[in-house]
Specification:
- Two copies of one chain form a homodimer.
- The first copy, chain A, has helices at 24-39, 46-53, 57-63, 67-90, 96-114, 117-124, 131-157, 166-178, 180-183, 192-205, 213-218.
- By secondary structure, chain A is an all-alpha fold.
- In chain A, helix 1 crosses helix 6, helix 4 (67-90) packs across helix 6 (117-124) and helix 5 (96-114) crosses helix 7 (131-157).
- The longest helix of chain A is centred in the middle third of the chain and has 27 residues, at 131-157.
Amino acid sequence: MHALPDPDASQPDDTPAHPQRDSRAGQIYEAAARVFCERGFGQSSMNDVATAMHMTKAGIYHHISSKDELLFGIMSYGMDLFEERVVDRVEDIRDPMERLRAAIRAHVLLYTRDRPKEITVILNEPQSLRGDYRAQINRRKRRYVRFLNQTFRELKAEGRMRDIDPRVATFSLLGMINWIYQWYAQDGRLRDTELAEAYIDLFLNGVVRQDAAAKVSSS
Amino acid sequence: MHALPDPDASQPDDTPAHPQRDSRAGQIYEAAARVFCERGFGQSSMNDVATAMHMTKAGIYHHISSKDELLFGIMSYGMDLFEERVVDRVEDIRDPMERLRAAIRAHVLLYTRDRPKEITVILNEPQSLRGDYRAQINRRKRRYVRFLNQTFRELKAEGRMRDIDPRVATFSLLGMINWIYQWYAQDGRLRDTELAEAYIDLFLNGVVRQDAAAKVSSS
């Protein structure tokens, strides 16, 4: 799983999950992430990656041992970004409601403002990674699931949440946010910050006007 | 795009979107949908489909002209199922709130109870279909987006919906429901009907206890 030492890099690059972005191996990860985003992992070949790098396939294999290693390195880097920008920033917020708001905001903004291609690959290719690589990425995904689940449990224990299964709340929220990749365009129709606040509002308060609830339940 | 007439079938099979399930072409679509679900489209070859059918690749090509045609046929059938079980059943409900509830219920139950592999392929492979095939499937997906959007507009016009952009409501709901494929297991922990009602409740009323809202906004 480790890349070979890169003669072009100023430091030895033995951490494919955090490739030096200015090393040759790092550039290969960058190019591969672009290729996988555009064509999908299954439809991409090491030849495509080589072409994008203006290198030979043998040149690529000097740095990277397999397409699977490349995918794992990209996803690991995507998870690093996700943890750094979302989980690490919000998990110490004491009030669970504020923690939840901050998590939704950071998560939505990461997707809408930054749109890291490594995270696009994670979302587009849930089935492409195999074996132990897949298990490692799934373990990191589960950390966020546990974090959300725990936040909903706290809200419930404090009597601040409606009678909803924390697991259902967790996966509903994940679905709402992860789907953003499928439809949100940075076309100015809806600004990223507006979307983040709208998601917080919709998820916390629902769609129905409460003063119209009586009308609803009698309809 | 049309399959060749199937000598094994009792009727000529010229509708790949609705292959006769008992014809040889129909069986190939069935097998291919299973293969694409398990391995992903990009990682599957016509050889894999042939192996699953105990046929030669030439035998497969007697019925199907390309892997892309196969994917399009599978997705078209998935859209047929979706329209038949969800959109067609609910679009004539006059009251928009009841229509929305019925749509969420039908959509969730289709995914949790029936889990058609053709719909799994649609959800897993949004990027795999190309050109005109992709445009045709996207056109059918947009029909449901328009249906939801229109329902939210009606709710808003009637003063029954909070101040939420109908587009945000539409895509939030689609995300919540489409994500079910990623996590829901038929393990009995959460019954399909319970999940459907929980989704209706959560989406319409949100997570926060309204009598705790004051506490929330002051926190």
